[in-house]
Amino acid sequence: QVQLVESGGGLVQAGGSLRLSCAASGNINRFNSMGWYRQAPGKQRELVAVMTSGSRINYADSVKGRFTISRDNAKNTAYLQMNSLKPEDTAVYYCNYRVYRDYWGQGTQVTVSS
Predict the structure, then answer these.
(1) Could you tell me the CA-to-CA distances from 98 to 30, 51, 95, 105, 112 in Å, in that order?
(2) Torsion sign across C-alpha atoms 52, 49, 68, 41
(3) How far apart are CA 61 and CA 69, in angstroms?
(4) Given a cut of 90, is residue 31 above it in pLDDT?
(5) In this predicted model, what pLDDT tens digit does every residue of 45-71 receive, in sequence order?
(6) What are the beta bridge partners of residue 47?
(7) CB 110 within 8 A of CB 89
(8) What whole-number distance in Å separates Cα of residue 93 and Cα of residue 48?
């Protein structure tokens, strides 16, 4: 089992920044991917950004150039730096850890006011 603890959500004005963190613990496999998905009310959960342990990165088109994912493999922690936030970024953000199966964090609310 893998446990994920997220932090860093909150309320911010449009144009502002937030940084999310996700710490993984438990049965960690060094070959994995970690990343973030989000789900807005009435919408399906969607990919935001993922990064493999080999540093391959994939971003949603809607966040390219504004969000940056990074990892500290020694700490089994992933980060999502979100800049130039827009109201449409408002959602619950879920950390994802993937190796053979998906593990999910509890979710953290990000609210961007206009």
Answers:
(1) 11, 10, 10, 12, 28
(2) negative
(3) 14
(4) no
(5) 999 999 998 889 999 999 999 999 999
(6) 37
(7) yes
(8) 9
Structure tokens at 90: 């408002």
Interatomic CA distance for residues 99 and 112, integer angstroms: 32
Query: Radius of gyration (Cα) for the chain, nearest Å?
Result: 13
CB 93 within 8 A of CB 107: yes
Tokens 């827009």 belong to which residue?
86
* Tokens standing for residue 25: 């613990």
Two structure tokens written together for 64? 């390219």
pLDDT tens for each residue of 65-92: 999 999 998 999 999 999 999 999 999 9
